[in-house]
């Protein structure tokens, strides 16, 4: 049998390799069937003729008639790992479908050796032959057919009893016998001038095939419809319709073509020329030679050339459109792309592969048409390729539509094992025209090529869609905790020069203004890190210029230092601000992150600490402005410094005509205390102010403030809320709001409100 490997998930290599045995040079050339080049040459025994590969492709067996043994090749290393002695002049070999046994013909001793492949030892010998040459298993493994050139017959060995149980008289001195992939027939060729014979394995009827003769090896299409017979005498490969057993075409070649094997996907036929030392690669779609590969001397390679070769990982599925939930690949939204300047997304590791389940159970020979399409301007680059990944064998046609947002191609089932759960994978690079809109894709399967080309629902037998590419910010800035240090009015002279001693710093000179984190999306725990166009995770070094800075707005005029700390108590300084002022503090960070940082305020102890709010923002400077566009982040509220002095309010202060409106402040303490006035009006009422909006209440004294000198104009009713903040302990300050009618002498007194207490 010829179909050693199937193009499916069960295969152990990304593509099959052809193992070509060379009789004159006693070696095996390994041809990569994708690049169509010899990748290595393996020395074996003397006079190598036949070749057979294990079904899983991990072993290749080469009979050596000149040294009476079989070389065992490990395809993962392409080295001979065992040599098994057999009978005289072994030529042919075939492996059981389960890979457990190898049958070898011994031309010189007239028997067949049975080898246990797990131990590489001969476990039985089947006698009864004159000159057995080549042989093949039936697909169910129950029989081995042996071409016996000296008895004009093909014999069937029962693999259970290891005895000859049937004889097919071919009358052509059969040289080679091969069984069709579906097991219905066998074809026996004659090394002399006699015609080839077709054997119906169901009825036992033998049919001579007109127009054949002097044939060598036999190969088949995976669907068993065509047999390919080499003609070593005059050259050429004959195509025999297996339904009618008639020659329907001849592919011209030079004389002395002998070995033949079909590539497992049914797209190419490999034929050896024993005289020229070449392998002809024939495209079965056009039945023409498309390449010639030079190999060793006298390449016979009779049997099954194709095996897995070096092991390779499974096909990367990339983004699976049928996955629930969808798992799109994430790219950096900072990538600069436009319709006029599109950007190519490279796919080195297969992360950008696009895949979907086939969604349909095929019958052998059935053809359907696949379509992949994506929105928002995505383009499938010219190098994109489609791969069938399943347990069956399927051929994919040429891709139409590369360079656009939709592609379509044919799928042909070479057997009955191409099923709905198998997968199609689209490999290659992509192109985008922007990052503002995410990209979604759809896979559909159609009855006819015109329907696949047009898209839509007409003729569609299956469809699935899902997210393909998402664009996300590659970095983030967040506030982890808000600080609230309190400037202490009783810190000494001057007031508010120190903080209240309390957690988290427990230090009169240290205030924690809040915790924050800045870093990549991944490091911030926001999800997978977006990719660059090259397919690598984007870094801050890709994005940020050395001048990138974190900026903290607020009043730092009373600070001796402003710094980052990894600890909430601010006991460790890991970076001080480049500069700080009454307006802001700036930290240049370049491409570094700042994860789990605290902003710490070290007071100078001599200047009053202002009350106020503090924010954090990122001033982003691009490292590669033509490639990535970076944006500033923030400002975000980080924390606030408050003072623990006295706050007094007159919620409804009025300045009616002919009345005196005033505030009376009393300081019972031993130190003069500063105060400031703020005025708030109702919505739409704009209030004009003048006069003393701040001042000092002397020690053990009272100060009267006339509001008609403070509240000088209203666009609405003549009333307002007056708030006084006094830098003094609450118990030392009293406030009274008073309205006096000078004509009548009436006085209305209102104790000023202390928020939170009355």
From TrEMBL:
Residues 58-208 form the YNCE-like beta-propeller domain. The keyword Signal applies. Transmembrane segments: none annotated. Keywords: Signal. It comes from the Bacteria. The keyword Signal applies. It holds the Pfam family YNCE. PANTHER family: DIHYDRO-HEME D1 DEHYDROGENASE, PROTEIN NIRF. NCBIfam families: beta_rpt_yvtn. This is YNCE-like beta-propeller domain-containing protein. It comes from Arenimonas donghaensis DSM 18148 = HO3-R19.
